[in-house]
Amino acid sequence: MKSMTKDALLSAFGGESMAHMRYLVFAVQAEREGFPNIARLFRAIAHAEYVHASNHYNILRDFDEDAKVVSGAPIGPGTTVKNLNLAIRGEEFEVEEMYPIYIKIAEEQGEKQAVRSFRWALEAEKIHAELYKEALKSAEEGKDFQIKGKVWICPVCGHTYIGEEPPEKCPVCGAPREKYVGF
Amino acid sequence: MKSMTKDALLSAFGGESMAHMRYLVFAVQAEREGFPNIARLFRAIAHAEYVHASNHYNILRDFDEDAKVVSGAPIGPGTTVKNLNLAIRGEEFEVEEMYPIYIKIAEEQGEKQAVRSFRWALEAEKIHAELYKEALKSAEEGKDFQIKGKVWICPVCGHTYIGEEPPEKCPVCGAPREKYVGF
Ligand SMILES: [Fe+2]
Ligand SMILES: [Fe+2]
Ligand SMILES: [Fe+2]
Ligand SMILES: [Fe+2]
Ligand SMILES: [Fe+2]
Ligand SMILES: [Fe+2]
């Protein structure tokens, strides 16, 4: 694997791992404030970030070394309103800068697995940014987020969907409805 | 907060988040190879790393910024024998170099919460390294790891203990038996 694609995968693995972790921390705080649905949204999206991190990490299978990883992370935690703002900033950075550039790097270097893993993540992060913005509106009014049905996560690509049932097949990776995990 | 303690907390947060994530990835592989107890050990220790990451991150509560995080991560995943070797390397780095130095930095700078969070992590990482070494011996012989009882995690400090019941109180942080989470 070319070294700049490797660096991009490492950085994305670090970023996704920390996003996953932040959302678990934020879920605990949302519960404390009496926002069980915002907590549920954080836990569901944490699972999508797990899917992304896992996909990126598994592409690095041919290495056997101790790498240094450089990644971005919004800090620090506070109220749910503050936490949702941190979450939105993290997702928007991934959507507007990070993943578009990482896709270009991997395309330029002909690293097809990395291109696919970055594209799958990008599609989910767009949805995450929107869902967190909606949740922020509720939290700012002191209300919990309304979820009709469940938050569904595609375990192959991390696609995130709110509804009574998951989509018939994943619009991002094509996985069948039965694979989706509901939160 | 002094800037070198902040950098150490950030780096430890990144390292713990990625360790948590790797162990979730490694658990899936252990299940595939027919090692359910090694998978259970990975999931339990992933929870301890969640406790560490969460403790470190929560100390950063007064910030509101997008930080750059530099952390180490052993790559890449493979068979359970390879994964256990990566896990042992990560834990030993934390025990032999990282946490002893981060404790010195935080002590020098009078950052008591960081000292405590680093000490709690160090104590657990010593146990993690030993447990993974035992699991590696089994995996190298093609056998699953033997767990008598459960793997118990202290949700306050990440202390990790195998037995029928958790200890009467946590030997690291003093939390009572009832708080432990069993895997
Ligand atoms: Fe993601
Ligand atoms: Fe996301
Ligand atoms: Fe999908
Ligand atoms: Fe840890
Ligand atoms: Fe550990
Ligand atoms: Fe403890």
From TrEMBL, chains A, B:
Annotated GO MF terms: iron ion binding; oxidoreductase activity
CDD domains: rubredoxin_SM (cd00729), Rubrerythrin (cd01041)
Keyword annotations: Electron transport, Transport
Gene3D superfamilies documented for this protein: 1.20.1260.10, 2.20.28.10
Domain Ferritin-like diiron: 1-143
Organism superkingdom: Archaea
Sequence ranges assigned to domain Rubredoxin-like in this UniProt record: 149-183
Hydrolase found in the keyword field: no
PANTHER family: RUBRERYTHRIN
Record protein name field: Rubrerythrin family protein
Annotated source species: Thermofilum adornatum
